[in-house]
Amino acid sequence: MVELKAQTPFGELLPLHIGDMTVAARDLGQLTVLGVFDRAGLSKALEAAHGVALPEPLQSTAEGDAQCLWFGREEALLVGPTPDEALAKHAALVDVSDGWAVAELQGPGAEDVLARLAPVDLRDSVFEPGDILRSQLRDMPASITRTETGFLLLVYRSMAATLVQELRRAMEAVASRR
Amino acid sequence: MRIAGRGLVNRDKPVSFTFDGRRYDGFAGDTVASAMLANGQRLMGRSFKYHRPRGVLSAGSEEPNALVTTGVGPASEPNVRATMQEIYEGLAVRSQNAWPSLDLDLMAVNDLASPFLGAGFYYKTFMWPRKFWKHVYEPVIRRAAGLGRLSGGPNADAYEKAYAFCDLLVIGAGPAGLMAALVAARAGADVILAGEDALMGGRLNAENEHVDGQPGHAWAAGVVAELATMDNVRLMPRTTVTGVYDGGMFSALERVNQHRARRGEGAPLECFWRIAAKQSILAAGALERPVAFANNDRPGIMTAGAVRAYLTRWGVAPGKQVAVFGNNDDAHRTARDLAAAGVHVAAVIDSREGVSMEGADFPVLRGAVVCNASGRKELESVTIRTAGGEHKIQADCLAMSGGWNPSLHLTCHLGGRPTWEPDIHAFVPTPGAVPGMHVAGACNGTFSTHGCLAAGVAAAENALEALGRKPEPMDLPQADDAPYNLKPLWSVPGKGRAWLDFQNDVCVKDVQQAAAENFRSAEHMKRYTTQGMAPDQGKNSNVAALAVLADATGRGIAETGTTTFRPPYTPVAIAAMGAGGQGKGFAPERLTTSHAASLAMGAPMVEAGLWYRPSYFPRGQERNWRQSCDREVGFVRKTVGVCDVSTLGKIDIQGPDSAKLLDLVYTNKFSTLKVGKVRYGLMLREDGFVMDDGTCARLGETHYLMTTTTGAAGEVMRHLEFVTQCLHPEWQVHLTSVTEQWAQFAVAGPKSRELLNGLLEQPIDNDSFPFMACGSERLGGVAARLFRISFSGEHAYEITVPARYGAALFDLLVARAEALEGGAYGMEALNVLRLEKGHITHAEIDGRATAGDIGMERMVSDAKDCIGKTMSERPGLRDPERGQLVGLRPVGAVKQLTAGAFLFEAGAEARRENAQGYTTSVGFSPDIGTFIGLAFVMRGRQRHGEVMRMVDHLREIEAEVEICAPVFVDPEGGRARG
After folding, report:
1. What average pLDDT does the segment B491-514 reach?
2. B128 pLDDT exceeds 70?
3. Which of B142, B337, B525, B754 stands the most exposed, by the fewest C-beta atoms within 10 Å?
4. Which domain holds residue B344?
5. Is B654 within 8 Å of A96 when comparing Cβ atoms?
6. Which of B974, B598, B603, B923 is nearest to B790 (CA)?
7. Are B847 and B936 found together in one domain?
8. CB contact at 8 A, B699 and B773
9. Residues A130 and A68 in one domain
10. Both B638 and B760 in a single domain?
11. Count of alpha carbons within 13 Å of A2, Cβ hemisphere only?
């Protein structure tokens, strides 16, 4: 019997502390793309099974360890639990737990750091906790969610090292101004 | 000379710096220009063409003369305006465009040759002989003319790019901008206030006047202090808004650390901002116009506003005996300020008749002009022309004012044209030129402080209304409302060169010459004379040059029009715009899960799109890549090889209409594919050419997994999105990229099944898992997918596991392969293996190939339609003369083949017209024992056996080749099925 050892996307690259900012890897459990075929049915099934409704565009819903992030046109990302089988009646279910590298950026300069990487308006007046954007971090396709404690960043797993490099550069630049 | 008790510099903080190696002392708050003037140093630069000695003309970013180089080595920065560079301890400044030194510049011989160097000189003189331009004339001219030079070394300084968003962007922090920002900020709007200067306040810091009962600079400081406490305000000093773009986008350059020695540790030198603003207020002020008269470029001659700025802002008297020359009341203000500061005023020369100046204790000459100036490196005297004749007066500084030009540049960046305003003899912004932009203060032709404050309030109120906010009631601060009273004066007639464009050495006579040679439009004159083309972009010369052109062509200025103002408003270093893009910052790196293991095995990596893949895995005594490659090819042909193929695009397709989608996008049918089977598919673009190829597996009744080539993964995904969103939005089908979810490895070779059966929990055999089968398997407790497909033509599989197990599985597969006398193989071997089988890559399907060209016309199903099918039936795409895919092998003495070489009939001359085709890919086949290649050859399939010339003109290689079938190994395909 062989044994396959799992590796995390960031390995030793995170956490990273610069100035009063921190970026750390996050393991949020299973990530499942929900390809929506039937909105109402899916939302009902989601609430019944996981306690979260299907989010409106640019928003997310959460209940306990389960989160549901809007993830694109007719697409949501169920974060945390293994999806209930009932969901498959209303949506395509695709496990992408290993496809994304997930990190959280925290600290007073976090918004300034992202202003150096993302061409989108992340001011707290317009981008509140739970709000999500599919945008880019420099040239990396990314998902950005404001959490109660910082920003949750998702990039393709293969770009994890580049993300750390870009975050480091932006964090150093921001720290140098503080 | 510094004047006691004056200026806003910090006298408690002395700062020293060097200019051309010599130490100068100044104070915190000084610029290089103010500190040099305080030290009595007038000479700061040499002019572009004539190498004339030059001193500072202005006190702002429009400075045309005092251009210097800061820093040393690769960190040096040319063409820095001395008027903008704040001094800091240890700052090293060098003069530029002078040899051997600023004081003794031998290139000044150009000045003596000036009669030959006027407008159009280059165009007329260096025409002949033609070949001389590139190798003789241009290098010589470039050496003699020019500005600062780059070091030639890579710049190690950090730059950054950033985005900002706001309700209101206020551009300019003078009285209008401050007032506008204050009103908007108090109303709760999200405000960004960008000011070019280090110290906000604009002319309030440079004029001797009161606002709200306090000195202007103190009022400004109070407003800035209030704004600084507000959470909804971002103050951006040292930030020049450089461009206006569609949709409320602005570019701005912030000089983050240019004013201090701080470098390294990620501290950026400059930041290039992109600011998105719902509304904007332009309060950029105005630029003073010089007057053109003979030798008006002598060091010591500067604008009157600059003289007042040095006096009031920096406490520096720019001369001991100052003459003041103007055509408006600003001249009087300058003389009064100087006299009040105890500086000797030699005379006020006012071009207007009958103006009064009460209480002046200096001579006031009315209806008089300055018509010449003497003193080469420093002004010594000026010649005054009155009705009674000409006479000289001693002066070491002349403050001149030809009036003011509103800084309306940004209002023209979206294509708007300014409007001529006859009352102030200047262009003003055309209302509505930039959507959402309100214009206030001097940049709108309102020149009094009171007027600017009122305009700032009005602009803010308009912006707030558009934002749906209400301003709080506020009293307008008391301020000066002196009239402007200007009578136009552009140039003083007379002999000698009278400068318009100081930076590019363009004189009145050059503009007249242009007009005489029929370059009458403003745009033609600009290009013929180079007026307005230097780093200052004509900020100092624009309207005066147009006035001279208008006069020379017998038109009015309004009719003559202006040239076009384009971004950037001030020069922006490419390093700032490209911040973060140096070296590996240029693009993200995509690394496979086996990346670290490949590096540990010594594999050189090659880029495939953004991915990095191993070329080959060198071993022991191997001296070159070919030996490694041959060995790795041997693994696959004889035992078993392992290759990471995770970079291939993988698209999960689910939903009841999945099969319909695939039947539409692939040329062949997928609705008939059985669950648990894989099929090779070909995809066309709408125009009928081949887009991509790959395999597609049917995992369930309504569930497929498509693979694409590495390079076209994004394009194919976009194509599928287009089809599902635009062509068939009614279809129930969902696409998810799972490229990153799965680590995928090819296990290829006669011993591939043996290897896998040592790992899989349920062993497989040829019956349970035949060629083109797929299914779910488990190994090491992990759910995996197995596909029996082969790019090498051997008995082969691809196995995928979730990416977290990729590194572990790669190590395991390589170890097992090595135990079977095989091992890892890289891209070089992969390429040879597919060449031996005649399998195509994007070297063949390069966007110009049809299904017929690659011999796959039978894959375009007759039984159904597909995207690109109709267009692929165009006669040109069915032309029998088109190049067809063939194999090549060398049959002459030269055994080397190269990709990109052309093919000619034996005996035909190797000219373009005779080309019969070209090679697309080549490689050395250990099986065949020679190079083999793929090529497109006209009617190639009928020409198997024909011997042709392969000529690579670039590499100078020629070989005799035989055209053959493109499959070199196992043409029956039995091995893959075995």
Report:
1. 94
2. no
3. B142
4. 296-395
5. no
6. B974
7. yes
8. no
9. no
10. yes
11. 22
B277 by DSSP, 3-state: which?
strand
What the block records as the tokens of B269 is: 């030198």
Does A104 share its domain with A172?
Answer: yes
> Element (H or E) spanning B458, and its range?
helix B449-467
Closest-approach residue (CA) in chain B for A178: B267
Residue of B364, B368, B361 lying closest to B343 (CA atoms): B361
* B268 contacts A176? CB cut-off 8 A: yes
Which residue in this structure is represented by tokens 């490099």? Answer: A165
Q: Which residues of B touch A116 (CB under 8 A)?
A: 160-163
State how far the Cα of B359 lies from the Cα of B343, in Å rounded to an integer.
16
Residue A2 located in a structural domain: no
* Chain segment B598-620, per-residue pLDDT in tens: 999 999 999 999 999 999 999 99
Mutant choice from B235, B737, B740 vs A, greatest count of A C-beta within 10 A: B740
Confidence of residue B144 (pLDDT cuts 50, 70, 90): low
Contact with chain A for residue B742, Cβ under 8 A? yes
In a domain, A125, yes or no: yes
Whether A64 and A123 share a structural domain: no
Among B395, B415, B446, the domain boundary falls at: B395
Domain range spanning residue A66? 30-95
Q: Can you give the CATH number for the domain in which B305 is found?
A: 3.50.50.60
Dist. CA B59–CA B297, nearest whole Å: 16
Helices B827-837 and B625-638: crossing angle, nearest 10°?
A: 60
Q: Does residue B500 sit within a domain?
A: no
- The pLDDT of B439-468, averaged and rounded, is 98
B879 shares a domain with B812: no
* Pair (B810, B918) in one structural domain: no
Task: Name, in order, each residue with C-beta under 8 angstroms of B335's C-beta and a sequence gap of 6 or more.
Answer: B324, B345, B348, B357, B360, B362
Q: What is the CA radius of gyration of chain B?
A: 38
Type of residue found at B295: N
Segment B310-331, tens digit of pLDDT:
999 999 999 999 999 999 998 8
Q: Which two tokens stand for residue B42?
A: 């007038």
Q: Are residues A23 and A107 in the same domain?
A: yes
Q: Indicate yes or no: CB of A156 within 8 angstroms of CB of B590.
A: yes
Query: In CATH, what number is assigned to the domain containing residue B728?
Result: 3.30.70.1400
Q: Where do we find the tokens 């990109």? A: B900
B714–chain A Cβ distance below 8 A for any pair: no
**Whole-prediction pTM:** 0.94
Burial code (b: 16+ CB inside 10 Å, e: under 16) for B353-366 equals: eebeeeeeebebbb
* Calpha distance B334→B860 (Å, rounded): 85
CB contact under 8 A, B190 and A170: no
Q: Are residues A35 and A52 in the same domain?
A: yes
